[in-house]
Amino acid sequence: MIDVEIHQRLGGFQxxxxxxxxxxxxxxxGPSGSGKSSVIKxxxxxxxxxxxxxxxxxxxxxxxxxxxxxxxxxRIGVVFxxxxxxxxxxVRHNLRYGRLFTxxxxxxxxxxxxxxxxxxxxxLDRHPSTLSGGExxxxxxxxxxxxxxxxxxxxxxxxxxxxxxxxxxxxxxxxLRDEFGIPIVYVSHAVEEVVRLAGKxxxxxxxxxxxxxxxxxxxxxxxDRFEIMSVIEGRLGPPNGPFQLTPVETxxxxxxxxxxxxxxxxxxxxxxxxxxxxxxxxxxxxxxIRTVLxxxxxxxxxxxxxxxxxxxxxxxxxxxAASVTRAAVAELDxxxxxxxxxxxxxxxxxxxxx
Amino acid sequence: MPDLSPDxxxxxxxxxxxxxxxxLWGVPVSTVLALILARGRFPGKALFDxxxxxxxxxxxxxxxxxxxxxxxxxxxIGAFLDQHFGIVFAFRWTGAVVAAVVMSxxxxxxxxxxxIEAVDARLEQAxxxxxxxxxxTFFLVTLPLSLxxxxxxxxxxxxxxxxxxxxxxxxxxNIPGETRTIASAIYTASQSPEGDGEALLLSVIAACIGLAxxxxxxxxxxxxxxxxx
Lengths: 354, 229
Prior knowledge:
The complex is a heterodimer of chains A (354) and B (229). By secondary structure, chain A is of the alpha+beta class. Chain A folds into 2 domains: 2-218, 3-Layer(aba) Sandwich (Rossmann fold), CATH 3.40.50.300; 229-348, CATH 2.40.50.100. Helix content of chain A is 20%, strand content 34%. Chain A has helices at 36-44, 91-96, 111-118, 133-145, 163-180, 191-197, 215-218, 326-332; strands spanning 2-10, 13-21, 25-29, 52-56, 59-63, 76-79, 151-155, 184-188, 200-205, 208-213, 229-236, 245-250, 253-258, 267-273, 277-280, 291-299, 307-314, 319-325, 339-344. The longest helix of chain A is centred in the middle third of the chain and has 18 residues, at 163-180. The radius of gyration of chain B is 20 Å and the shape is globular. Chain B starts with 5 loop residues before the first helix and ends with a helix. In chain B, helix 9 (182-191) runs antiparallel to helix 10 (196-228). Chain B has 10 helices and no strands. Chain B has helices spanning 6-39, 45-57, 60-71, 76-85, 93-117, 121-129, 134-163, 166-172, 182-191, 196-228. Chains A and B meet through strand 6 of A and helix 6 and helix 7 of B.
């Protein structure tokens, strides 16, 4: 549980942020310069709060009236963009560092499970300089966790890694979230990461909270049609080996993923850009598109530009946004209540961005 | 090869004793000063920095004279130390240690300071986030990572202390067996008509020791560079 309220001027930038987070992952999402990292610094205690209030687990860390628990006494772990491992210590001693300062009764996270979850058992005797970037970040996650913090802050922990490395670490963060039950505040400007990890998204723009909600709700609304995304949840089905495709079974139909994704039966979220969705009033034939989802038009916003974003309620309750031309809306007579088929180019669906 | 007189051997031994003790005191003091200079932010820091480096630019005689005024038996601090603790520096080998510490301080502080400044402050921040207070962070992160600079500083400081002359002779004079170091012994020998041989020999010895220290500090620095890459 975390409650954050910050009203403070930082140079020429006014930060006015108010949000709370529960047990899972709370994502702070926004473009660079929106104030995400500043918020993290306030929570970690690296910047002194002059107006507002930061409460973690019922303990007041800072308030505007002079209370300021010093960073090392907060028991708030931080995973930075760079791993920041201590170069003079082995991986093992890096991992044990935080434990030295954790009161005996509060060391509730054990070394074994963390090392196992992160898959770093074979690295224990190595020195940080001999590890790859991905390995370093895994050790860094473990080190923060093993201090048994009451809250973990992650400040774009994947930003300095390449795409394959990100894919390797992201499931680990998921696993940490699910296994160790430490609340996480996760800063990122990558929609894919946020959608996958967060239960709650706080969207920051220009130092203010623009929107708060579940990933599904938050990313349905955006100013620019290229940023509008839908999140569809489903379950992985048996892959089609010869054609290298994997089905995600949803109530509205099957979404085909490129490549073979495992394991069978896993619940996944798929991210679809509104610009990759087309609509049809009849089930189409003779098209290359594999993914056809069944639903009804929920909303067609008024507009004067060439395109609009039509909101479609899919069978089973989720929504998908389709960016289509107004000309097409008029010709097909799309209006709320009209049954439609949402066509998604399979190639747009892939776990790689996740 | 002319033999060294027993007095010359005494001077060499005394020089090593003085330099060793001066290094043992100088390094911890310098480390604290270097940390203040590297990480501290306070008004008058430039002045503080200047004061530490002053012995580097002053004529050594002036430094020695200042020590005499401050730490001499009738000096401001010296009188107090003498009356209350019975500690006397003037004309004692311990005074030579004090002079050597003051004179080598700028060199040691500079080496350590550069080393501390090269320690990534983000590592110290990470240490704090793991629950370590400023003291623990200093001893577990900053200090070990500055070790190369500390060793280099200690080696150079030791060499400087061995060669110290001006401040020492002004502060504690040139008493055989008590304050006559190699440098004073060379000076004494060179002033006497039959001392040329001994002066030359002692000078060669001093040069060898100095060179050895410089080479040692370079080797240490290179060794750490290799170990950390």
